[in-house]
Amino acid sequence: MSSINDTVEEINSKIDDVKFDLEVMGVGPEDQPGQVVGVLAEFESPAALMKAAAKVRDGGYKFYDCHSPFPIHGMDQAMGLKPSVLGIFVFIAGTIGCIGGMALQWWANAYQYKMMISGKPLFSFPAFVPVTFEITILFSALTAVFGMFHLNRLPRLHHPVFYSENFKGASDDKFFVSIEAIDNLFDANRTWELLERIGGKNIEFLVAKK
Question: Is the pTM of this model over 0.90?
Answer without folding.
Answer: no
